[in-house]
Structures are given as structure tokens and as C-alpha cells.
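Hi, does anyone understand the following?
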Amino acid sequence: MKEFYLPTKIFMGDDALDRLEQLTNENIFLITDPFIEKSGMLDEVLARMKGRNNDFEVFSEIVPDPPIETVVSGVKVIEELNPGVIIAFGGGSTIDAAKAIKDFAIKLSILKTEPKLIAIPTTSGTGTEVTSFSVITDQEKQLKYPIVSDSLLPQEAILAPNLVKSVPPAITADTGMDVLTHGIEAYVSINATDFSDAFAEKAIQLIFEYLPRAYKNGDDLEAREKVHHASCLAGIAFNIAGLGINHSIAHASGAHFHIPHGRMNSLLLTTVIDFNADIQDFSNHHYSHAAKKYAKLAKILGLSSTNCRIGVKNLNQYIRHLQKELDMPTSLRQCGVTYEQVVKEKRVISEAALVDACTKTNCKIPSIEDLETIIETIK
């Protein structure tokens, strides 16, 4: 039996931040990063809540790939504050950290009541504002741990396109490719349904149409809004269906090679599609379920897909064309990773990827050797 529900209330549009004006008489714990605190972006949030008898505590210790130590620090602050509302204002790392801080605080029974979590993303990529996932890093072991629990779901998400207007082109490209990977992996997941497919298809279409525009012109607010919506839609899709080995390998290798998550996903995407499609030779006409789904997706995107082989090939070519438009690297070497590093780390990365939570919903069961081959392919 499968189920679908969407517990997160989503506010969108140019005036989406005005939702915060409805908060009154609240004890608010606002989690963000040092850049947002210093840039003045935080003022847009605080201004909407001042003068309404709200108390604030700002926690701005968030760093990319938030380590366990940051979560522990946040839990200590939240214990003293006992807030009724937590606002996570920032990129995926900020929202993931806020979710983990809240979850650990609840599990440790240090809060009198469960606070409402409001997520306000300032990048368009993770979709974490609508998912039950949080990724925390163990710096000592160089591993990223995906935490999966319905208790991590934010109660509200605010999608304000003006907040992503200043995101640099390279980050726009990286995070946008993360969105595309979310959509494609959810689409072929073993837990995919008609409901998750609907969200995934729309997210994928929006990315191909609007991501190049957002990359080339950050002031294009229509493109920014569409990519921001695509991120949220893809988040809903993979929250229903799960992800796959593209993310499993990215979690493990990103921590070892220190490559941004979305960029690592992009490097892997076409190779993982070929692995999952499992089209052996030209005489093979017994196509896998994944190959049929990829071919269907190609057709939805307006690509030639007279059979599964052609559909998968054209989907991968379309992805490579998008990568070229975004000036994305297509090999680990272009990211500064040597072949010697790949050989040295491929086994430990593959072992971590095999037990990653995302591997459970991949459409094809991989072996350690399969994962090592995928990593070597993108060297």
C-alpha cells in the first residue's frame, strides 16, 4: 500500500514573505548563515515580524554541508529558548540543519511543545522545504548522512522569487541540476506513483525550459520563479517516491572530493541513466521498466523516442546539451580530482553509497563493483 499527502502549506509569489506578518506574540528561533545575516537579506524577514510582540533569537552558525557539531550547538540554544516557531532562512544546508536541530530537540524531550517550522529557501535546488530528508555531515569520517523521518517535514514553506535573484550563475547551475536529478530519480524510483510522476514531470519540464534563462540572466524573475517552483515540485516528487544511486554516490563522493552536491549529481546523471536503463545491445528488445520510463520522459520533453533505445539516448543528449549551456564540468578531472584520487577513494565511496538510504529506492539493485564502475566512468 502506498500513500500520498502534502502536510506542508506552501506560500508563493512576489508577496510570499508577507505571510510572516501574521506571526504575533511568538518566541521565534531564526536559523540562518553568516552571509545572509551580514548581507541585509535577513532584514526582509525581521521587518515583517517586528512590532507584533515577537521575541527573536538568531542562530547564524550554519555552514555548507552542516556538521553534527553545528546541530549540537543549535540544540543547546533551542533548549534555552523553547521557541514556538523556528524559521529556517537560507539554502539547503540551513534548512537541513534547522530540521535536524528541531528533530533532535524533540527526540531528546527538551522542548515543552513542538515548534512550528517555517522554511524559506534562498536557493533553488534541494527542495528540502517540503521533504522529510535532512543531510548532515560527519567531518571526521568524511561522510554525509541522510536522515529520513516524517518529523522533519516543515509545516510551512515560503517561496519568494526575489530571494534567489542574486544567486551567482555557477550556484544557479549547480542547484538547478540538483533539481533535475531529483525529478529524474523520483520518476524511475521503485516507489514512483502517478502522483509523484506528475510532480516530477512538471519539475523536469520547467528546468529544461527556464534554468538556462536563470543562469544567463539572474534578473529574469519569471525564470527565477519557475526554477524555484521546479525545486519545490521535485522535492515533493522525491519525498513521495525516493531517490536512487545518483544521490547515494553524490553523498559519499561529494564529501570525499569536496564537490558541490548539485555539480556532483550532474557529473553522474547520464552515466546512472545508462546503468539503470540497462540496454545491453541492439538485439535486445526486452527493455527494463526504467528504460521505458526514461523513453516516456524523452517523449514528454518533445524528443524523438520511437523506441526505448532512442528515447534514452536522446534524453542523455538533451541533458548534455543543458550541461553545456550551463558551463557545467562533465568529469571529475575538470573539478580538480585526479585519477589517482578516484582509484584511491572509489571503494570506500562505493561502500558508503551502497548503504545510503537513497539506494533502497533505486530502480536497479547495484553491486559494489557497479558503483565503482560508475565512479570510474566519470573520471
